[in-house]
Design a protein that fits this description.
The protein is of the alpha/beta class. It is built from 11 helices and 6 strands. The protein has 2 domains: 133 residues, Response regulator (Rossmann fold), CATH 3.40.50; 69 residues, Winged helix-like DNA-binding domain superfamily/Winged helix DNA-binding domain (Arc Repressor Mutant, subunit A), CATH 1.10.10.
Length: 220
């Protein structure tokens, strides 16, 4: 049985890189490049003509503050479209934020061609994919920050009932403003609870706090 052809739009700001990637993808028997453009705004224009790609491969331009919001809007309006980000940005919080918008895959631009092709096919199949370099980096970060030992697990840090409410909502991905609305309090108060928990646990940021709480079985 012949495999499905993956129809792709490529969005990349730099012309030389875009051209090179297009040539690389075009030689894949199961990939068809519908078009290549500079940015996500131009992708909207293509989709408005009735073009129906399976996968969008796009970079994220951090100089455009709302670009991730634009991608989220794109996914919302065209929910059959699977988005794979190909970027040099490797920050953990940014990658997680991108995935929470509905992006299916995140790959660094220095990835080898074989892994890129695997990522495209994986995303096309409906699964999430994060490149091996990022995965290894995040796992090492987790090990470095948490460093859970048996003696650590025996120690218990007491969170107040209100702190637990905030912690659970943070773990579910809510922002401080959204948590404040849910708990009928102020954003500043929520951030105060968050900072108190970070101080109590000795971790560096919210992501590490959540990992700590999971490791300690404070939350599931």
């Amino acid at each position: 049985m012949e495999s499905s052809v993956i129809n792709i739009i490529l969005a990349e700001e730099h012309h030389v890189l875009r051209y090179s990637m297009r040539k690389m993808l075009e030689i894949q028997k199961d990939m068809n490049i519908l078009d290549d453009v500079r940015n996500v705004d131009e992708v909207f224009e293509l989709l408005s003509t009735g073009m129906q790609p399976d996968v969008l491969i796009t970079d994220i331009n951090l100089s455009e503050a709302d670009e991730l919001s634009t991608i989220e809007k794109l996914i919302s309006e065209y929910n059959n479209l699977k988005v794979l980000i190909l970027s040099m940005v490797d920050g953990e919080e940014f990658v997680l934020k991108a995935l929470k918008t509905g992006v299916k895959g995140y790959v660094l631009k220095n990835v080898n061609p074989d892994e890129l092709m695997f990522a495209i096919r994986h995303v096309f199949g409906g699964d999430n994919y994060v490149c091996s370099e990022l995965t290894n980096k995040f796992v090492q970060h987790l090990l470095d920050e948490v460093q859970v030992t048996e003696s650590d697990l025996d120690s218990v840090i007491n969170f107040s009932a209100r702190e637990m409410e905030v912690l659970l909502l943070l773990a579910d991905g809510f922002t401080s403003k959204e948590i404040a609305d849910k708990l009928f309090t102020s954003k500043r108060t929520v951030e105060g609870y968050r900072e108190n928990m970070i101080t109590k646990t000795g971790v560096r940021n919210t992501a590490a706090l959540i990992r700590y709480a999971v490791a300690k079985k404070i939350i599931q």
